[in-house]
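quick q for whoever's on today - can somebody do inverse folding on this one?? i tried earlier but teh output was garbage lol. C-alpha cells:
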C-alpha cells in the first residue's frame, strides 16, 4: 500500500507522530473551548519528543552531525518549506552558490 507523505521538515518527522498530526488536523473542527487545550497538548507532546531526541543518551542526532551536507542540497531541502519572498531569497542564494561552484571548477 502506497503511503502519501505529508510535507514535514526532517525535525518534524523525528518529533511528531501520525496520531499528533491527526489531532492537529482536527483542531479547526473542534469546539472553540477545546482548540487551545488540544493545541497545547500536541505542542507539549512534540516538545517532549524533541527533548528526548536531543538527550545525551540518544545517538540519532550525532549521526546527523557527522555528515557533511552540500550547501546547495540543504537549500533545496529548505526551499520545500519556504514561500513568497523567503523562497525567492533561497532561490537567489542557491543560484549564487551554484555559480561559485562553477567558478571553482573552472579555476581548477
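ok took a stab at it. sequence:
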Amino acid at each position: 500500500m502506497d503511503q502519501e507523505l505529508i510535507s514535514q521538515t526532517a525535525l518534524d518527522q523525528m518529533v511528531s507522530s501520525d496520531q499528533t498530526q491527526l489531532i492537529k488536523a482536527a483542531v479547526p473542527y473542534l469546539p472553540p473551548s477545546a482548540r487551545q487545550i488540544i493545541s497545547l497538548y500536541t505542542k507539549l507532546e512534540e516538545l517532549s519528543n524533541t527533548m528526548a531526541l536531543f538527550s545525551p543518551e540518544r545517538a540519532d542526532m550525532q549521526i546527523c552531525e557527522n555528515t557533511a551536507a552540500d550547501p546547495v542540497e540543504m537549500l533545496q531541502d529548505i526551499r520545500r518549506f519556504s514561500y513568497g519572498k523567503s523562497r525567492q531569497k533561497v532561490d537567489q542564494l542557491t543560484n549564487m552558490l551554484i555559480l561559485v561552484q562553477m567558478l571553482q571548477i573552472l579555476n581548477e
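fwiw The chain has a mean pLDDT of 84. also The chain has two domains: 8-67, 68-108. so keep that in mind when u check it
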